[in-house]
Amino acid sequence: MRVRAYAAAAAGEPLEPTTIERRDVGLNDVLIEIEYAGICHSDLHTVNGDWGPQPYPLVPGHEIVGIVAEVGTAVTRHRMGDRVGVGCMVGSCGECANCRNGDEQYCFSGMVPTYGGTDRDGTITQGGYSTHVVVDAGFVLSVPEGIEPAAAAPLLCAGITTYAPLRRWGAGPGRKVAVVGLGGLGHMAVKIAHAMGAEVTVLSQSLKKREDGLRLGADHYHATSDPGTFERLAGRFDLIVNTVSAPIDLDAHLGLLALDGALVNVGAPAEPLSLNVFSLLTSRRSYAGSMIGGIAETQEMLDFCAEHRIGADIELIPADRINQAYARVLGSDVRYRFVIDAATLG
Ligand code: NAP
Ligand code: ZN
After folding, report:
1. Matching CATH topology for 2-157+313-345 and 158-289?
2. Which of 127, 201, 210, 341 shows its CA 20 to 30 Å from the CA of 90?
3. C-alpha of residue 326 to centroid of ligand 2, in Å
4. Which residue's alpha carbon is at the smallest distance from atom 12 of ligand 1?
5. What residue spans define the domains of the chain?
């Protein structure tokens, strides 16, 4: 079936309306009529070629919410009319130890990304800036009632990417958590860490978004442009989640960790980051990374967000404003996620 979409024709090119082919619904597939697609900074990194060469034309989008329009005969998990979501991956081998352990995102053979990857039929996957998508039912999540569908879309990437490290590194009552960067991921990290019961601090470039940060659930808010911040907060945090899309001064941020504290990078700048090992040795600190989350964990996150009435703070845009939204994301001018209304795809 041919469906409408927005694609980049080459690295760094603006996105333009186009049509793409979606495969026939197979035994285990779900056809989703897309309602909403979030704009993640990873979409920008990818279409700009920051992470290396990509197959073009490329339709980005891995924060997808929509309605099931058709299911394959072997699908039992989802039914016509259900509201569902798709995140950053649409396939994995299903057999390796990581897949069997629910860590499909770390599949030994490489998970299949929602766009720009090679699908099981050899075609290139195309993402959610589109009216429809066909996805293996095992990678389709149920969107619970109680979250606005447009506000649920960003949970499929920004939500799970921050939920997973917050859970793994034990954000909860009595734990001090800092979130670096108050963008799409950062604002979800603040809401989720607050809901988990942690004491939450935002570390932003400036104090411009301070009121928002406190409203979102932060207890404290500091500017990283103020060198005094790094003196005043030295040794303070059990966990720091770095969501910044550009390189940061790791040594300065590691200095904010308490004994046994961890700095977890979810931000994915193209440039290598370096650190002085003494920043780790002196307080038995860790520096780690984390990539999205497994399918079962993503469902757990959606249910957690529904229970705590958490959605993203979004700006809903028509498709013809995608390029303008990209420019604003690059300028850190996003409050706090752009979501495309798929009904406007033309
Ligand atoms: P975003 O909405 O653009 O937020 C990034 C925030 O970082 C900005 O709002 C800004 O916050 C801060 N920032 C930007 N440039 C900065 C600079 N030069 N110096 C210091 N701070 C800066 O992006 P996002 O969608 O949240 O994504 C953030 C990063 O996570 C991207 O690199 C993305 O590719 C990556 N990501 C990783 C995963 C994963 O699985 N690990 C998943 C999704 C996304 P302030 O204005 O508050 O300073
Ligand atoms: Zn993303």
Report:
1. no
2. 341
3. 14
4. 181
5. 2-157+313-345, 158-289
